[in-house]
TrEMBL record:
InterPro entries: Calcineurin-like_PHP, Metallo-depent_PP-like, UPF0046_metallophosphoest
Superkingdom in the source lineage: Eukaryota
Protein name in UniProt: Calcineurin-like phosphoesterase domain-containing protein
Residue span(s) of domain Calcineurin-like phosphoesterase: 73-210
GO molecular function ontology, one term from the record: hydrolase activity
Length: 308
C-alpha cells in the first residue's frame, strides 16, 4: 500500500501553517478546576487486574487509518474499528482491505465508520452507489460486522463472541452510519455476554473528547464486555479500564452534568472507597485505537495490542 500521506504538511517554503497547541495543565485547571482535579484522582484509582484466562488471546486494535498502513504487531485477532479511508471511495477502500488481508493474523474483524460511506446502504445514493461499487468489494478472509455478531475460535481453541457496529452520533449529515444524539440507538441491539464489542463511537466520557455516546455507555453498565474497541475520537488514543464502581459513576456524572465542588466531593468519596475496597466485579478494557489523530490529524500512533 502506498505511503503517500495527503495530510502531510507541505514542504513549500512559501506556505506557513500555524498549528494549534494543546492547552497546558494550568490552562485546563483554570478553565474547570474541580473537573481537572477529579480527573487526576480518577487516573490514580486503584485497580485490581482481572484474573487472566487459562487460554489467553492477543488482540491487535487499529482504527481511523485513512491512508495510513502502520506496521502491525503479531496477534491472534486483528480488529479495525472503522474509518478505513477518509473519502469512502472504492479504490482506497479496496487498497486498505488488501493491506489488511496481507496481515498474518488468523482472524480479522472490520466495521465501518463515518467516512466509510460506501458501506452505508441506508444512504441510497452515496459515493459510488450509482456504479455498483458496494458489490465490487472483495473482503477476502475479513469478517465484516454491521450491527451484527460472530463467534470465532481462536488458535488456542478458545471461543469468543464478537459484536460490531459502525454507527455513531451525528456530526455531519453527509457522513455515513449516524444517528441523532438523543436517539437511544443501542437499545436491545447488543447481545448479552459479548466478549469483544467493536464500535466506531466511544462511550461518553471515556477516551472520547466528549463526542462519545451516552446511550452506549449505559449499555456497558448493563452488559459489560471483556474488551471494547473503538475509534472516531482521534485525540484520545490509548486504553482505560472500567470497573463499574461508585467512583466511575461519580466521575461520569461530573463529566456529563455537574462540574462543581459538590460533585467533586462525590468523586473524592468514590476514590477513597475504591482505594480501600477496590472493585472485584466485571471489568472492561477500553481501547481507543485511532492511528491518525491529534490536532490537524498530524500524529501517527502505533496499533494497540491487548491480551484477554
Amino acid at each position: 500500500m502506498s505511503s503517500w500521506d495527503p495530510y502531510a504538511i507541505t514542504e513549500d517554503p512559501n506556505v506557513t501553517f500555524i498549528v494549534p497547541q494543546e492547552p497546558s495543565a494550568w490552562q485546563r485547571f483554570k478553565g474547570q478546576p474541580f473537573l481537572f482535579l477529579a480527573l487526576k484522582l480518577y487516573d490514580y484509582r486503584r485497580i485490581i487486574p482481572a484474573r487472566p484466562s487459562k487460554k489467553p488471546v492477543s488482540v491487535v486494535c487499529i482504527s481511523n487509518t485513512y491512508y495510513q498502513s502502520p506496521k502491525i504487531p503479531e496477534g491472534d485477532i486483528l480488529i479495525h474499528a472503522g474509518d478505513l479511508t477518509p473519502d469512502g471511495s472504492l479504490a482506497f477502500f479496496q487498497r486498505t482491505l488488501n493491506w489488511l488481508n496481507e496481515q498474518p493474523h488468523p482472524i480479522k474483524i472490520v466495521i465501518g465508520g463515518m467516512n466509510d460511506q460506501l458501506l452505508d446502504r441506508t444512504k441510497g445514493k452515496g459515493r459510488g452507489w450509482d456504479h455498483g461499487d458496494y458489490e465490487k468489494i472483495n473482503w477476502g478472509d475479513i469478517v465484516y460486522l454491521e450491527n451484527s455478531g460472530t463467534t470465532i475460535r481462536a488458535p488456542n481453541g478458545r471461543r469468543l463472541r464478537i459484536w460490531g457496529s459502525p454507527n455513531s452520533p451525528i456530526r455531519e449529515g453527509k457522513l455515513g452510519f449516524q444517528y441523532r444524539p438523543d436517539d437511544d440507538f443501542w437499545y436491545r441491539k447488543i447481545p448479552r455476554s459479548v466478549d469483544i464489542l467493536v464500535t466506531h463511537t466511544p462511550p461518553y466520557g471515556h477516551l472520547d473528547s466528549r463526542i462519545g455516546c451516552y446511550w452506549l455507555l449505559h449499555e456497558l453498565w448493563l452488559n459489560p464486555p471483556r474488551l471494547h474497541v473503538f475509534g472516531r475520537a482521534e485525540e484520545n488514543h490509548g486504553t482505560e479500564i472500567l470497573q463499574y464502581d461508585k467512583l466511575q459513576k461519580a466521575m461520569e456524572y461530573m463529566i456529563g452534568r455537574e462540574k462543581g465542588l459538590k460533585q467533586f466531593w462525590e468523586v473524592l468519596k468514590g476514590f477513597v472507597l475504591s482505594w480501600w475496597r477496590p472493585s472485584t466485579g466485571p471489568q472492561t478494557i477500553l481501547v481507543n485505537a485511532c492511528i491518525t489523530g491529534g490536532y490537524w490529524n498530524m500524529s501517527r500512533r502505533a496499533p494497540i495490542k491487548v491480551v484477554i
